[in-house]
Each structure stands twice: as structure tokens, then as C-alpha cells.
Design a protein that fits this description.
Distance between the termini: 38 Å
Largest sheet: 8 strands, mixed
Shape: globular
Oligomer: single chain
Radius of gyration: 19 Å
Mean pLDDT: 81
Number of helices: 4
Strand content: 25-35%
Helix content: under 10%
Order of helices and strands: HEEEEEEEEEEHEEHEEHEEEE
Structural class: mainly beta
């Protein structure tokens, strides 16, 4: 039970269970008596239960404690985290050169698709069935046909709810009106097309997996501050140098105090890319 929900390629899965083994709980706590962990006086404790991730073709960057404003071009857009077993968000639209990929049937208009942000997935993975009339056609087949007949375009993805279902419970954090409960971002063609990217069918479940092409296109922030967990999204500044962060950032004054509770810390990992088929 202690290890439930605490997996993930980055090891940043999270759980509210008191005896949870989640590493991120340790980084944000001065003591965890149930695990006999007590931080020293010199330990750096993160101020906020937040972390962000962004990447390019060669490097990935983990930002602990929030995000570096210098890495993005705009304020972070926040939407509710939908599930407590993974980092799921609502995606209400996905288009390719004007073609709606999530073409909901009339009875389901205004709906949204549970989409899981997964650093361990190399591809975008789309539902590959109509699921009892939820869609007019398989989203994957719609995309496959559009990408084949009109190659080389970016994918527009809309996070959040854009209709009247966006009530105050969705609008409780930094959004000033229901119209701000959704926002559209672009996945450039170079990030989803082979050889560096891929789009595949996700079998057997009406779920979308948002893998590597998302993290190479935008900064994704995971906000685990109670009472409402959120996911933040922002466009990455093209001039930002992923990989310029210090390997040992704990005393870097640019990112926060050198001791005690600190602000944001960056860690960089090199990555090895493999050529993949697009569909």
C-alpha cells in the first residue's frame, strides 16, 4: 500500500497516504516519522509541492518547487487534475489543420477526454474506436487520414472545459471567468512526426496518452498543493536554454535561497533518441 501511486519514470508519482513512499513528499517535508526520516537543519525543503518538466530532442529538464518564469513566454494556464492515480487532465479538442480529431457525437458535444501526461511514453496515443457512439469515428483513424492527406502540420490541443460545464469549481484558481477554463496550445509538426516523434493508437480504452511530443512542445507543471490538485501548461520560450541549469542547483542563488526552504531547483538529464514510425 505504501508504494501505491508512487511509480513513474521520473519517480514523481504522488499520494496523500501518510505512509506513502513517494519521494516528492520527502522533498517537501521536514520530517516523515512513519519512515524514520528527519531532515537535518541544513536540508533544503521545497516551499511548494510543485514540479515542472520540459524537454527538447536531446535534453530533459526537471524543475522542482514550481517553474522558472524565464523558461516560458506567458503566464501558466491551470486546469484541474482529474484523477488521483496519474496526472490526468481534460482535453476538450484536438485539431489537425482544421480537422477535429475528437469528433464527439451530438449527444456528447461539449464533453472532454481524460488524457494522461506521461513522461515514460514516447508517443501521443489516441483512442482507436467510437466507444459506443462517443465519437463519429475513431480519433486515431481521423488523425491518420488527415496527416496522410495533409502532411506536415502542427496539432492544436485544447486543455480544460470550454462550455458552461466550466463552473466555479473549475474556475477557482487564477482564472477570472469561465471563458478562461480552457486554452489551446500547439504541438509543432517536428515534435510529433518521425523520426523524433510519433502518434499511435491506444487500444482498448477511451483515454489519450500525452507523451514525449507534449513535453517537447510546452512546459507542464504539476501542482500538488491542496485542496485542488492542478496541472499547469505554458508555451516554452524558444530562446530558453534547456540544459543550462546547474547539475547541482541547491546553492544556485538565481533560483532561490542557498539554504533552508528554497524556491525552484533545476535538474538536467541527457536523453537518447530513437527513430520511430509516426502511425
Amino acid at each position: 500500500l505504501e508504494f501505491r501511486r508512487c511509480d513513474g519514470i521520473l519517480g514523481m508519482g504522488y499520494s496523500d497516504l501518510v505512509r506513502s513512499a513517494c519521494f516528492f513528499r520527502t522533498l517537501t517535508s521536514s520530517a516523515r516519522p512513519s519512515w524514520n526520516i528527519f531532515q537535518t537543519d541544513s536540508a533544503v525543503i521545497l516551499q511548494r509541492r510543485q514540479f515542472s518538466f520540459l524537454a527538447n530532442e536531446y535534453l530533459g529538464e526537471l524543475q522542482l518547487g514550481g517553474h522558472d518564469p524565464a523558461s516560458v513566454t506567458e503566464a501558466v494556464f491551470y486546469t484541474r487534475m482529474l484523477n488521483d492515480t496519474g496526472y490526468g487532465v481534460a482535453v476538450s479538442s484536438m485539431t489537425y489543420n482544421g480537422v477535429e480529431i475528437l469528433d464527439f457525437e451530438f449527444a456528447h458535444k461539449g464533453a472532454a477526454l481524460l488524457s494522461i501526461l506521461d513522461t515514460g511514453s514516447s508517443c501521443l496515443m489516441l483512442p482507436n474506436a467510437t466507444y459506443n457512439g462517443t465519437y463519429t469515428r475513431s480519433p486515431f483513424e481521423i488523425f491518420k487520414h488527415a496527416a496522410k492527406t495533409q502532411p506536415g502540420h502542427g496539432i492544436q490541443i485544447t486543455f480544460g472545459l470550454c462550455n458552461n460545464k466550466c463552473d466555479t469549481s473549475w474556475n477557482a484558481y487564477n482564472q477570472s471567468s469561465p471563458s478562461n477554463c480552457c486554452k489551446t496550445f500547439t504541438i509543432p509538426a517536428k515534435n510529433w512526426m518521425a523520426p523524433g516523434g510519433c502518434v499511435q493508437a491506444f487500444p482498448d480504452m477511451n483515454v489519450m496518452i500525452l507523451g514525449d511530443p507534449i513535453f517537447r512542445s510546452m512546459l507542464i507543471l504539476h501542482d500538488l498543493e491542496p485542496p485542488v490538485y492542478r496541472v499547469g501548461v505554458a508555451a516554452v520560450d524558444s530562446t530558453y536554454g534547456i540544459g543550462d541549469a546547474p547539475i547541482n542547483p541547491w546553492g544556485d542563488e538565481r533560483m532561490g535561497p542557498s539554504s533552508g526552504r528554497s524556491s525552484v531547483h533545476k535538474h538536467v538529464a541527457f536523453r537518447k533518441r530513437y527513430a520511430r514510425n509516426t502511425t
